[in-house]
Amino acid sequence: MVEKNVQCPMSDVQLNGNIKINISNLNIWYDNVQAVKDLSLDVKPNEILGVIGPSNSGKTSFLRTLNRLNELHLHSKTKGKVLLDGKDIFTQIDIHELRKRIGIVFALPLPLPGSVFDNVSYGPRMMGIKNKTRLLEIAEKSLKAAAIWNEVKDRLDELAFNLSGGQQQRLCIARTLAVEPDVILYDEPCSALDPISTLKIEEAMQNLKKEYTQILVTNNVKQAARVSDRTAFFLMGELVEIGETRQIFTGPKDKRTEDYITGRFG
Amino acid sequence: MDAKLKEKIAFTMLLLATIVVVAPVAFILIIILVKGIQAISFEFLFNYPKDGMRAGGIFPAIIGTLFLTLGTALFSIPLGVMAAIYLNEYAKKNWLTRSMEIAIINLAGVPSIVYGLFGLSLFVTFLGFGASILAGSLTLSIMTLPVIITSTREALNAVPKSFREVSFSLGASRWQTVRHVVLPNAIPGILTGTILGLSRAAGETAPILFTVAAFYLPKLPTSVYDQAMVLPYHIYVLSTQVPNVSPKIQYGTVLVLVGMIFIFNILAAYIRAHFRKKKTW
């Protein structure tokens, strides 16, 4: 998989313009246990960044910090800087605005009680959109982008819980898309799904690359290899290595990365 | 001893314990039903007491109890539910919240006569409401609030945390999350707990003793500042203050009160069962 922006020469100025999210010296604690240690990395626009690593390596904490969901955790403490398009997410962006711009898809499909339409229109409704025609337009557009429109277009009023697991997860992606984010975070989105549903979600992610920056946390190393442009390997709260996916999987610089992706542990 | 025998002994002991618990209650209810049912008639339910309450009906006491319960509901449900939402969804978890929680738990254990005296001094005397439906409702409300707050919080906690996270992650504010995700899914639980709290309040005597209950009133209350006859106090009057009341009337009055509370509880059970069937998660 070749990175999109290789044709422009990488001067420092352009590099800055080419950073969607800039994370520097991020530390996360739960009580006295440090989950993420001194993490610095950049996320480029329109890339899919895969984040791999064994459990307890801080992947999810890192991900949930980007849209400040981690703050809901009572005992969490965060230090460090995260810039979205150059603006500090903790001080310069309103938290609700931030969460609209950085959407998340959770590990388990989590439809809210209610119909398919209720779910996909939840975000826009909370933003104050009341016009039913407008909401239907948004629903159709989002469901199409999440590659589930054809399966649910006649079932919009049906309970979301009646959909299959894979459909529910794509509905959740559509629900996230409906608030028009720039960035989508995925927290092991396929961990509860069968291979075919997984494939459909991976296809949807590829189609979303044109418009969105995506970060995929996954326990499935092969999934990162299939989907992501660049891959980061986390271990015990530290970023061990980040690079082009091909490089990480064919010539990792760190022994630990190699051990993990070849299945020697994890 | 082999496991089979142990099993039999354990089973028998547990069954006996259950019977010991249930038997007295069943016994009381059966006596009330058998002895009280003879008194129940249209006249008994819809007429005023006669002959110094030795005959006639208990209509004013039934109406008084209904008014009082309604008044209690009006004050305690909104206040209790709002306080529960604040404590559960908004309040930071610090020593202040913690001490408020402990205070609420302890309030549920305060003897009801203490609430009665508190109501007498605050509502009847200090605020000048006099012995009235208003003062009685407020006193019962304060007594019921801890129950409503606790059961509402339980209902709110039963809504999965992940639903809230989904809502927040879509940019919704805390209130939007409460209003559109948490409350709709907590309402059955809130209703059930609330009705049970109210049914307890409807049967209380001590809190209404000084704040609203009238010995005998020849008319129905016309405003919230009026006193009223109330069933629990009327039962107390019939059994201790008026000589030569036929047991039939005493049992009949008790049956009506127990019946009203029973209806409340059945309503709560029905709501719970109904929504559990509809619950999709």
What's the short story on this structure?
The complex is a heterodimer of chains A (266) and B (281). Chain A is α/β, with parallel strands linked by helices and 266 residues long.
Commentary on this structure:
The complex is a heterodimer of chains A (266) and B (281). With 266 residues, chain A is α/β, with parallel strands linked by helices. Chain A has a single domain, classed as P-loop containing nucleotide triphosphate hydrolases (Rossmann fold, 3-Layer(aba) Sandwich), CATH 3.40.50.300. Chain A has twelve helices and ten strands. Chain A has a six-stranded mixed beta sheet, with helices on both faces. A four-stranded antiparallel beta sheet of chain A has the order 2-1-4-5, with helices on one face. In chain A, helix 6 packs across helix 8 and helix 8 runs parallel beside helix 9. The radius of gyration of chain A is 18 Å and the shape is globular. Chain B is mostly helical and 281 residues long. Chain B has a single domain, classed as MetI-like (MetI-like fold), CATH 1.10.3720. Chain B is 74% helix and 1% strand. In chain B, strand 1 and strand 2 form a beta hairpin. The longest helix of chain B is centred in the N-terminal third of the chain and has 34 residues. Chain B is globular and about 70 Å long. At the A-B interface, helix 3, helix 5 and helix 8 of A face helix 7 and helix 8 of B.
